[in-house]
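**Protein of interest**
===
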Amino acid sequence: MSETEALFAVLRQSADADCVAALERLVGGAPDHQLSRINVLDVAKRLGLDEERAIAAFLHAARIGLFDLSWNILCPGCGGVLDANASLKSVRASEYNCALCAAGYEATLDEMVEVTFTVSPRVRRIAAHNPHELPMSEYMRQIFWGTGIDLPDGALEAAIEKITLDAVELPPGGKALLSLQLPAEFIIVFEPVTHSAQFIDVKGEPTRERQNLTLVYNDLRAPTGTMELRPGPLRLSLENRTDRRVLPAVWIANDEMHAFIGKRKPFMTAKRMLSNQTFRDIYRTDTLDVDQRLKITSLTFLFTDLKGSTELYERVGDLIAFDLVREHFGALNEIVAAEGGAVVKTIGDAVMATFPTPDRALAAALRMREAMRRMNTTHGREDLLLKIGIHEGPCLAVNLNERQDYFGQTVNIASRVQGLAMSQSILATAPVIEHPLSANLLGAGGNRPVAQLQALRGVASEVAVYEIP
């Protein structure tokens, strides 16, 4: 048995069988570019796999060494990778700059950090393991652009050629002289390896006189600049002063280019990964540094608590009560994971969980309430009365008490809302109820939330809180 076969044998013990079989076929027969920075959501859709099970399978595969995990900082504008990290601990909270878009961004974990998987070189060598040997089009596909860009699979080179006036590959220390005829368009001389760009606004009366421009590439990312030239001949001098090859290309920034890089598809965000139960189970404390505080612009928090748990212990005794509470925790954990969420922590008989979107939290809450009803019916007593509160908003991902946790007013409000709940009630705030997917979910179930204004401790103004019957 080969090492790869042995690793897949191990993987079959912890991951879904269909997903493992799909990964084995992928590693064995997929073209190289499909094994570099894999978009797990795209693979699940293309192969007809359950999304949550596919994510879990890739995570277990990364844990045993079949794949390498990468946390890539993306430009929200062009979708390019501004930085790639083997760990979330390397992500900075400070600004990242995109030369192609001439803009700076503060990294958030929502749509600016993607999580990808690349086959390990010990399992299979692919071209992306030596990125500086990739041709221009494949370098752009596999290294520069993030997996949220919906690139044409079989005609990428032709698509890039349509927007390219000229391009050249320069080895370390190399020089090139390009002779171009500039059209009356906005031109970008873009170099993806050093991530640098020179904008040229070509306008005015055409000229026959030769214009000259010199660009030097080094390891210092110079600010993006814009200059004006006239339509006509240009002699472009390029010099590579880095210790690796560079790939400067002269692009026409027209509608065709914007349409080309503007097509997007879903990808695995860091926010969703942190709210994945399998990820939390595998990586536990090895996610964030103690001093890191990374922003999430929208995360949904669900808090639960058992009503009268102290009386429960008094009424049925410690042993029976402990078994009931443990059974209730098992049911809640299973439901949270099935709805694409993760349990952050338990506090006494309470649970704190996160979900990427409000509708998943609502779906989990409805399932939790039904699960408690079934358990009470089975035991013939109303012992498990679950109170649930849900809120959505911005927060910080932090490391608290050796655990990946969350901090901010959104967390506080979610906890306070749960504190308002009576037995077997689900309370949610307006951002949760008014989310389009939540509205569809509640409408399909015939649930009509009832609103009331509530004063919450630590919140200046009253909050609209909805009870879901």
User: Anything to note?
Assistant: The two ends are 57 Å apart (CA to CA). Residues 164-253 form one domain.
